[in-house]
Amino acid sequence: MTSRELLEQLVAFDTTSRESNLALIEFVKGYLAGLGVNCEIIHNDERSKANLYARLGPAGNGGVMLSGHSDVVPVDGQNWSMPPFTLTGRDGKLYGRGTADMKGFIACVLAAVPHFLAQPLTQPLHLAISYDEEVGCLGVRTLLDALSRLPEKPAICLIGEPTELKPVIGHKGKLAIRCEVQGAACHSAYAPQGVNAIEYAAKLIHHLTLMGQRLAAPQRQDARFDPPFTTVQTGVIQGGRALNIVPAECQFDFEVRTLPQDDAQEVARALERYAQRELLPQMHAVNRDTTIRFSPISGYPGLDTAPHSAAAQLLAHLTGSDAFSTVAFGTEGGLFHQAGIPSVICGPGSMVQGHKPDEFITVEQLDACDGLLRRLAAWMCQKA
Ligand SMILES: [Zn+2]
Q1: Lowest-pLDDT range, 47-56, 136-145, 308-317?
Q2: What is the extent of the structural domain holding 264?
Q3: 130 & 223 share domain
Q4: How many domains does the chain have?
Q5: 3-11 vs 363-379: helix axis angle to the nearest 10?
Q6: What is the CATH number of the domain that holds 365?
Q7: Gap between the Cα atoms of 232 and 8, Å rounded
Q8: What is the CA(130)–ligand 1 centre distance, in A?
C-alpha cells in the first residue's frame, strides 16, 4: 500500500485520546503480520489502549527507532468543512484529523516497511506507535519500560512530529500542576474570621507571576527557543459560591514551560516553600484546618540534542540540512532522551495545521517523507 492509501486507513480510526486506539493498533499489527513482521503490543492497565513495538532487520544493539503517536486531539466544537475521519483529497492537500499530527508520518513509515525488508540492513529498525501523547505523553511511558527490558536498545530515535521535514533537535519541557487552597468559610460581614481561599490563591498566582518575570531575565535567555525563556502561566481557576460568603475553596492549574536547562520542579518547589513559610502560618493563625495542596497533572522533559551528536548528524544527512531548529510544542522525544535514546524530531506536514479544523497534509510532504525514509534505508545498509 502507498503512504496515501495507508493514511486513508489510519484517519478512518477515531483515535481521539479519550477513545480506544486498539482498532488502529490491530490494523497495524495485521498489516505488519502480512509482511512477516511480528510486533509486541503493550496495553495500558485497563487494556483499552496499547502501544505497538516492532523490530525489522538484524538483532543487536543500536539501530534507529521511528516513533509516532496514534492518538489525535478532539474535533469537538471545531467547524470542519469536511468529514474529519474520512481522508479527503483536494488541490494537492489531504484533509482529515491527524493527517499532519501525526498519522501522515506513521503512514509513510508503514508504507516503507516492504522497502526496508528488501534491503540488506546492517542494523535494526525499530518501530514504535504510542497512545495518549496528546494528553501528556502518558502512553509512551509503558513503552519505554518495555524497551528498557529489551536486549537491543535503539541508538537513535526519530520522532515524526510535523516539522515540514525540517531538522529539529530541541523543545521545551512542561510541568502542569493543580493547587487546591482549603480556606474557612464564614459570613462575609465577618470576613476576618474566615480564611479567604480565593485571596490566598491570588497570592500564590501572583508569586508565580513574579517567578516567571525572574525566569525571563536577559541573562537566562536562550535564543534557540520562542519565547527565549521559561514561561509560567495559570490557565484555569475556580472558587467561591456567593459574594456574601468568604470562600472556603479555590483551585487553580498552572504550567511551567521550561528551557531544557531550567528545572520546572524548582519552580514548583519554590511555590510550595512560599506556601509553607508565608501563607500557611497566616491561614493557621485564623483556622488550623486550612491547607494548600499541590498535585501534578502532567509533564514531560525538554529535549536538547547536541548538533554534533550521531542522532543530529543522521538527521542532517536525511534532510540535507544542518540548519537545526527547535519547536514550541512538546514531544515524546524528551522521554526517549531521558531513557538513554538520543532523539531528534522530523516529520511531514506542519503543526500550523495541527489541532485545527480542516487539518491537512500536502501530497508533496507525504512524498518527500517517503523519500526521506528511502534515504534512511540506504544509510542503514552501510557497513558499521
Ligand atoms: Zn503530535
Answers
A1: 136-145
A2: 173-300
A3: no
A4: 2
A5: 120
A6: 3.40.630.10
A7: 39
A8: 11
